Amino acid sequence: MSGVDVTAVAKNYGATKVLTDITQNFESGTFTSLLGPSGSGKTTLLRIIAGFVAPDEGAVRIAGADVTGVPVHARNIGMVFQSYALFPHMSVAANVGFGLGRRGIRGKAAKAQVDEALEMVRLPGFGGRYPRQLSGGQQQRVALARAIVIRPDVLLLDEPLSALDRRLRQEMQVELLRIQRESGLTTIFVTHDQEEALTLSDKVAILDRGRIVQMGRPAEVYERPRTRFAAEFLGDANFLTGKVRGSAVEIAGATIMTEDRLPAEGATVTLAVRPEKIAIRPAETARSGAVENSLPATVSSVIYTGTALTYMLRSGDLHLKVFAQNSDGSPLAAGSAVVLSWSARHSVMVEG
Amino acid sequence: MPPEASAAGLPATRRRMPSWLATAALLLPSYAWLTLAVLLPLAAMFAFSFLHATPLGNKPVVWTLEQYRAFYDQPYLLGVAWASLSIGLWTTGICAVVGFAAALALVRATAGRARETLLILVLLPFWTNGLVRVFSWTMVIREGGFLDVFVRWFWPSAPSLGFLYTTPAIVLGLVHGYLPYMVLTCYIALLSVDEAVIEAAQSLGARWWTVLFKILVPLAAPGLVTGAILIFVPVIGAFMEPRILGGRVGVTMGTVIEDQFTQAFNWPLGSALAFTMLAVVLAVFATFSGVLRRSATT
Amino acid sequence: MIKIARLFLALVLVFLYLPIIVMAAMGFNASPLYALPFDFTTHWYQELAGNGRLIEAGWNSIWLAVLTAVIATALGTLAALALWRRTFRGRSILRILLLPPIAIPWLITGTAMLVFFFWTGIGRGLHAMLIGHVALAIPYVVLVVGTGLQTLRADLEEAAMSLGSTPIHAFFRVTLPLLLPSIVGAALFAFAVSLDQFVISYFLSVPGMTTLPVEIYSAIRKGFTPEINAISTILLVASMIIILGFARFARPGGIGERS
Ligand SMILES: Nc1ncnc2c1ncn2[C@@H]1O[C@H](COP(=O)(O)OP(=O)(O)OP(=O)(O)O)[C@@H](O)[C@H]1O
Ligand SMILES: [Mg+2]
User: What is the distance in angstroms between the Cα of C36 and the nearest Cα belonging to chain B?
Assistant: First the structure.
């Protein structure tokens, strides 16, 4: 089994439980994003995999070998730091060749590999420069070249793009994805940015207070969040809490259908509905029929952002949010009576 | 598969030194040295201050508190202490006024490279030999020295203005020695005062003296206090400046303590006086570190 | 207002430098009684060259300063690495323990060393001065190197280790080259501290085993000639050059980090 296996890893700093019982396989060749709020333990998990932090419990296996007790320098990893961490006293070529030297590759063979890596990050001919003579984006590419040239068993990146401005960041996302695909490296990528995580990754892992609450393909995690936290952290969601009645859920007098398997009659459940999945119509033109769920509501306010509209609504005691396209250029006014409707498969049952 | 099969070519894992051992190995040489050369001597001196007499030959060792009664038994010491204190206060006061003004002038009337150069020029003498600088003053202020020559250039029959071997001469030498401290601490404090605060005060109708005393001095207070501590503490322990510039009048706590070790050979008394002084120093630190902490939080 | 401020600054500089300049000038004046008018001569410098006592004291000072710089820099750098790169209990107490040599008046430290060295049989002399000077210099070295380490990001070492460096290799290839300006600065600083140190040396000296400042002091006390001006000028210029060198090296982050 290659890739990275983390088994029952836990880490405490004094009384703070930073990571609790993390068991996860990062499949060989996949690009996985670790996503979670600040302080949720992303960096700690990454540094445990790298070997900078020793876990209190559990084991880490890289490419099939147990590396739990192995120091950083004897693990074959590539790491890209948020601040790039290029050696300021070495040229770009020396930076990229550093890890090769540690592996006994020197001279011509090293030079060829360095050149190839610089080519891969689109910086051919930059070998003679020093880090301070490079722009932020170029430094980032050198850091990436330095990490991949050693053909690591796993590439670890801790918010590598957060120091770049928006445009450069998007450019680097594309580059990063291309390089990962070309090199086929198992990659673990820490980020704050959900959009970045969704566009780049094969898999997204959501961390909440030291636990991985869900891991899966981006669409899977987005469309079928398993917990309230996951639904809220990745995207936006309306939460409807009610009691199970037959094959539906009774919420504030309305009956809401879902395709998920419900627990026993009378149990309290929470359904998450994404704001863009809800259709909004003025009450008088509402048609019933095709859609399973509909809910009368009143518009409390509208946020106008040009291409899209965000409606804040009330339905009895419920507060709801709906995203709509600004297709006819005349948003509904506050106070309008409306009917909200959505399909049963968009009511996702979540824990918590 | 062996654990390191994947890390091809990497140096093999050797047994690691426990982390605490490495830390201890790094720290031990320095702290052992400091213990031997500073901490143990201070402890030994503290013990000496409770002896009746310098333990020489096979005189019996007698423990006593009498050395700490010195100020009571030898009232002239009170006068000496007062002289030291007033020299310390005058020096600190003059340094505060001149140093603050110089720092203010640096911050408000210069900029860029010129400011950097001026600051280095002000600080440079501080890192040269203090003894040599004190000696330099004797060239200037003795009778018939540079000061007299300079004045007589304009007024040939002027009386001598030389004031070597007086208390003001001691203060002058000490101010010269320690002024750079005050300039530096005030400079750092004033540098952090936001220009907009001053402009805001002016826009509210404040004149320059209001700005100075209501805004700049209070905001630079931490710098003034730090500078004052850094000056007052060594000044009350000074002995070489009073000896060279004060001559016969230059009797201070510093010179009295020195005498106990080099002339009178009364080490217990010297130790007790030194620790009394150290207590004053610590009291000064303690008092003002409270002030500094409060000003840091507000 | 600006003009007055600049004038004031000029006056402060005159106050700081005038006596030094007068003193240095008198070393080039022929009169042994410092009488004017000024009559240029290098006579006193020639005298100095033949003054065995001062020359010997000068060499003592220089050797003492060199040894102090080497020992204090080596020990202080190691301590700084522990104090700024490792976390352990009692770290802040150890940092506070650096203060006594800096903050306690030298008179007290010096007499304490005298008492203790006498009592333990270490005695007085150049070896005792070396012990004292190194102890005074260590805290400065630790602080200068520590400041350098603080501006040197720890992730560079981590990057080296992630690429296969052992901690020791990472230290020699990455940390040490980047820290070198701070270390050189600290060594210069330690050298200057020792070269200019008078109080401690004074209490630990014995006749025939003194340093330049102690020798100058006894000459001043006993009656002096412009020869003392000459040697003082040399000492002053040497310290100024060393300190300017220090200011050049010990910028935060060292040479490598700056663009
Ligand atoms: N060396 C340490 N000592 C004590 N607590 C630590 C240490 N390192 C991390 N922590 C704590 O562990 C928790 C998780 O930290 P971590 O850096 O892994 O979070 P993160 O998810 O990377 O956050 P961010 O998105 O802000 O980078 C935090 O509460 C942090 O305060
Ligand atoms: Mg982090």
Answer: 8
- Rounded distance between C-alpha atoms, residue C133 and residue B147, angstroms: 37
Clarify whether residues A243 and A127 are in a common domain. no
CA dist., res. A87 & res. C174, Å (int): 7
Identity of the residue in C104, C107, C117 whose CB atom sits nearest the CB atom of B239: C107
β strands within chain C, DSSP E: none
The one-letter amino acid code at B24 reads A
Q: Work out the minimum CA distance from A97 to partner chain B, whole angstroms.
A: 14
User: Rounded distance, CA C254 to CA C185, Å?
Assistant: 10
DSSP E strands, A114-259: 154-158, 187-191, 203-208, 211-216, 238-245, 248-251, 254-257
- Domains in chain C, please, with CATH? 22-30+39-249 (1.10.3720.10)
> Given the structure tokens 């992730």, which residue do they identify?
C155
CA distance C21 to B137: 10
In chain B, which residue's Cα lies nearest the Cα of A3?
Answer: B6
ipTM: 0.86
State whether residue C31 is helix, strand or coil: coil
- Does one domain contain both A214 and A278? no
Backbone φ and ψ of A206, nearest 5°: -100, 125
Name residues contacting ligand 1 (CB within 6 A). A 13, 16, 18, 36, 38-44, 192
CA triplet A105, A111, A113: central angle to 5 degrees?
Answer: 75
Span A31-68, pLDDT tens digits: 999 999 999 999 999 999 999 899 999 999 999 899 99
Instruction: Give every CB contact of residue B89 below 8 A, 6+ residues apart in sequence.
Output: B232
The residue assigned the tokens 């009291």 is: B283
CB B178 within 8 A of CB B234: yes
Mutant choice from A76, A98, A113 vs B, greatest count of B C-beta within 10 A: A76
- Topology (CATH level 3) of domain B74-297: MetI-like fold (1.10.3720)
User: What CA–CA distance (Å, rounded) separates A20 from B75?
Assistant: 72
pLDDT of residue B6: 40
pLDDT digits (tens, 9 = 90+) for C113-161: 999 998 898 888 999 999 999 999 999 899 889 888 888 888 899 999 9
CA separation, residue C110 to residues A284, B54, C101 (Å)? 97, 17, 10
Split at pLDDT 50, 70, 90, the class of B297 is low
Asked if A317 and A206 sit in the same domain, the reply is: no
Partners of residue A242 on adjacent β-strands = A269
- What is residue C172's DSSP assignment? I
Task: Read off the CATH number of the domain in which A24 is found.
Answer: 3.40.50.300
d(CA A26, CA A157): 14
Q: Give contacts of A72 with chain C, Cβ < 8 Å.
A: 158, 161-162
Partners of A282 in the beta sheet?
A338
Q: Find the domain containing A146 and state its range.
A: 4-233
Nearest by CB: C113 against B41, B106, B233? B41
- The secondary structure of chain B in percent helix, strand, coil, rounded to multiples of 5, reads 75, 0, 25
* Type of residue found at B184: L
For A316, the 3-state DSSP assignment is: coil
| Number of domains composing chain A | 2
CB atoms within 10 A of CB A90: 18
The Cα-based distances of B22 to A312, C55, C76, C82, C96 in angstroms read: 61, 44, 15, 9, 21
Residues 6+ apart with CB under 8 A from B70: B77, B269, B272, B273
Mutate to test the interface with B, among A98, A103, A151 (most CBs of B within 10 A): A103
Contact (CB<8Å) C97/B31: yes
- Per residue, the 3-state secondary structure of B213-279, as one string, reads HHHHHHHCHHHHHHHHHHHHHHHHCCCHHHHHHHHHHCCCHHHHHHHHHHCCCCHHHHHHHHHHHHH
pTM: 0.78
